[in-house]
Amino acid sequence: MAKKPKETQANARLFVDSLLYKRVSTELTEHRKNIGLTVKRLSLISGVTVTTIKYFESSRENGKGFSVGTVAGLIKAMKLDPMRVLPPHGGLIVDFPPKLTASKVKLLLQSTENLKTFKPQILDLIRSLTDVARVVKPDVDAALAVFTAEETYNVTPQNSLESLITFGRRLRSLRILKDWSRADLANAAGVALGSIFVIEAGMQNPSLQTLYQLAEALNVHPAFFIRYDEVAAKQQIDLERRAASMIAGDQISQVSDLLATLEYIRRTTSPAEVLNDTQTK
């Protein structure tokens, strides 16, 4: 069963009777006609199929919902400002923090370069842990574990719309900076937890209503998720750097726990240690 939309300001004011869907469809359709673009030509420059554009434009009358990828593609193709097309959600909007200073950015970049040198050792560690685990879990697959780690490391999905990748990256950074888990965001926005995972990965094309629910939960203007201007791109970079720094801080205790676990495994399986324990007893 689909999750019922949460009663946010956006849902209460903008999406009652599909008003926003009708409004956005009408505005973009009229703009297309005013600048002399045919549906076929708009399809060519936007990458949105003719069928999808016709469906989108029919929303003027029937109010049927359409996706973020569709509206983002059409707005960019017609060189419109998303901030002017998409109204605010009606909830609280919080300004972004000041950009990181040049010295902090330099430190972050130098530190992350150092982290790259540890990747081969971490993959070797996965293989070694798999070998240990096979003693009681013979089905553990080292190759699969390494492949999963490699795929997670390569975070850019294939066969995904650029606008959806941008949406997902901005969404994830804002969530992390709020110190929220995906479950926290799902609960605050009234969006299914599974959808949060795939939206952040750039692998789902959510509805415009879902975008508004997420934007309101994160106290950001909904247009930020699909803005394509240089200012928004720079804000995205800064947010991602801040989010990376927060993630690093959260990983410190987990790495410490891992080191303690590795020492436990080594000590309890070492013949010398076992022999010493037996002799002591």
Tell me what the structure shows:
It holds the Pfam family HTH_3. GO terms for molecular function: DNA binding; DNA-binding transcription factor activity. Keywords: DNA-binding. The protein is mostly helical and 281 residues long. The protein has 2 domains: 9-85, Orthogonal Bundle (434 Repressor (Amino-terminal Domain)), CATH 1.10.260; 102-269, 434 Repressor (Amino-terminal Domain) (Orthogonal Bundle), CATH 1.10.260.40. Helices cover 68% and strands 0% of the residues. The protein is built from 15 helices and no strands. It has helices at 9-13, 19-34, 39-46, 50-62, 68-77, 82-85, 102-116, 119-133, 142-153, 162-177, 182-189, 193-200, 208-217, 230-269, 271-280. Helix 10 (162-177) packs across helix 14, helix 11 crosses helix 12 and helix 11 packs across helix 13. The model has no long low-confidence stretch (mean pLDDT 88).
